TrEMBL record:
The lineage of its organism: Bacteria, Pseudomonadati, Bacteroidota, Flavobacteriia, Flavobacteriales. Pfam families: Polysacc_deac_1. The chain crosses the membrane at residues 12-42. Residues 68-246 form the NodB homology domain. PANTHER family: GLYCOSYL TRANSFERASE-RELATED (PTHR10587), POLYSACCHARIDE DEACETYLASE YHEN-RELATED (PTHR10587:SF125). This is Peptidoglycan/xylan/chitin deacetylase, PgdA/CDA1 family. One of its GO terms (molecular function) is hydrolase activity, acting on carbon-nitrogen (but not peptide) bonds. GO terms for biological process: carbohydrate metabolic process. InterPro entries: Glyco_hydro/deAcase_b/a-brl, NODB_dom, Polysacc_deacetylase_ArnD. Keywords: Membrane, Transmembrane, Transmembrane helix. It comes from Winogradskyella thalassocola. CDD domains: CE4_NodB_like_6s_7s. The keyword Transmembrane applies.
Length: 258
């Protein structure tokens, strides 16, 4: 299994083996550098790709799903302009979704969090600051970000969130240690829409729909207009193909709140 612990063990054994061999025959220092470089490359890719489950196990895709169900998820809200539009569309198509909320945005838009819950959707933790350097935070700083957001949301909906999606989907040893402390379930995705990168809604829609299968988890963001336009077309596609959009806790049969 390709994960951080196994890669470290393999690299260490290989490094020690090369050291032992080098006592009998000459081995270039570049071989050792190459081994370390390969370890670094694999670790960087694994850290930035949540679907690998490289540092910790995440709920990315329900391969055992025997119903035509998918989970649409939204990161980075709640947003005063776009979240209400998204809620309107979900209501119109009788769809449910999961919103991974940033704590500082929750503080500004508590009524939107209440509305999300009232309309049958799920909320999850997406850190307090969503800092660009979140992946460089130490264990205690990550714990503080998660617990601060949990407490803020709990004060609004009287529920303790049990789901966490790390900012940018990045995982590392510090986040792993923090999650062992907070006991959150990590939610990833297997369909990344790139709606924050691409500026053509048809390209975004095609990227999603060509990968739709039962059990899929779709990543979108309720923080921009293009996502609203893509969502309406996506919901129509799901309806026409007899798919049901459900919350991630329904898709994986897990508890969303502690």
């Amino acid at each position: 299994m390709l994960n951080f612990k196994n890669i470290n063990r393999f690299t260490l054994v290989l490094f020690i083996g090369l050291l032992i061999i080098s006592t009998f025959i000459s081995i270039s220092v570049f071989v050792f550098i190459l081994v370390l470089l390969c370890w670094l490359i694999v670790t960087i890719i694994g850290s930035f790709n949540i679907t690998w489950n490289y540092h910790l196990n995440a709920y990315n895709f329900n391969k055992t799903c025997n119903k035509k169900q998918v989970a649409i998820t939204f990161d980075d809200g709640p947003n005063a302009e776009f979240t209400p539009q998204i809620l309107d569309l979900l209501r119109a198509y009788h769809a449910k979704a999961t919103f991974f909320c940033i704590g500082k945005n929750v503080k500004q838009q508590p009524k939107l969090v209440q509305q999300i819950i009232a309309e049958g959707h799920t909320v999850g933790n997406h850190s307090y600051s969503h800092s660009k350097i979140f992946d460089f935070y130490g264990k205690q700083k990550v714990i503080t970000e998660i617990e601060t957001t949990n407490a803020l949301v709990a004060s609004i909906i009287n529920k303790e969130m049990a789901l966490f999606r790390p900012p940018y989907g990045v995982t590392n040893p510090a986040i792993t240690k923090a999650i062992k402390h907070t006991k959150h379930k990590i939610i990833g995705w297997n369909i990344r829409s790139l709606d924050t990168v691409k500026d053509n809604e048809q390209n975004i829609l095609n990227r999603i729909t060509k990968n739709i299968t039962p059990g899929a988890v779709i990543l979108l963001h309720d923080s921009q207009n293009i996502t609203v336009r893509v969502l309406e077309q996506l919901l129509l596609f799901l309806q026409e193909n007899n798919y049901q959009s459900v919350t991630v806790d329904t898709l994986f049969n897990i508890e969303a709140y502690a």
